[in-house]
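for the writeup, i need someone to sanity check this before i put it in the appendix. the sequnce is what the collaborator sent (i think, or maybe the updated version? ugh). structure was predicted straight from it, no edits. if anything looks off just tell me and ill rerun, i have time this weekend
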Amino acid sequence: MPDFEADRSAVIQRAIDAGISHMITIGTDIEDSKRAIALAEGYEFIYAAVGIHPHDARDITDIENVSDTIKKLASKKKVVALGETGLDYHYMHSPAEIQQEHFRLEINLAKSLGLPVIVHSREAKEDTLRILKEEKVEVTGGVLHCFSGDMDMAEKALNMGLYISFSGVITFKNAKKMHDIVKAIPLNRILIETDAPFLTPVPHRGKRNEPAYVKYTAEKIADIKGISLEELGKTITDNAARLFRLII
């Protein structure tokens, strides 16, 4: 993201200092995915995901060419997932049918490549769940990132073998619904993330988010679960290693 052009190496160092052991930087279009790979190749503990965000699905004019390009990018050693892909009906930057077509494409690419998918879903619960089920996402696995759905959506995603990832939103005052979902989800199916530079957790809400701040999300989830931060950290690291096939 351009938000980090001025101090990216310092941001990464602060993450290390905060106890972050591994990171995945996520592509949202072809050029962004190439930059994610380049960044990951520069650090042993950073990995990349490649894909096209639903906002950018409208720009795809040649599906076959895009599919081949994503395949080539995904073959790189540091790529551990496809995504971010999915549906976003809040802004509707891309027509729903185009979003759905590309979402199906990336799920099937992920299956053919043996990679999990990182799924974006905003105000698109029913279509997201339907497509995930129809395309048999359980074959390759994945995660609903920055989860903002309800308990029903979480349960159906878990039944398809997916993980649920929580962001800094969990620290907000009005996040009681999310707290209840965290309580209900098995610990071995939870992931955490920043979605940097967005969704900055308390006490830095309103500022640019960065990976070091994921510790505040972790602290809140540990508190909700009634476990130590150390136990949560170990379990979530194991979860990420299992989903993304990382050797840790």
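Residues 96-113 form the longest helix (18 residues). The two ends are 26 Å apart (CA to CA).
thx in advance!!
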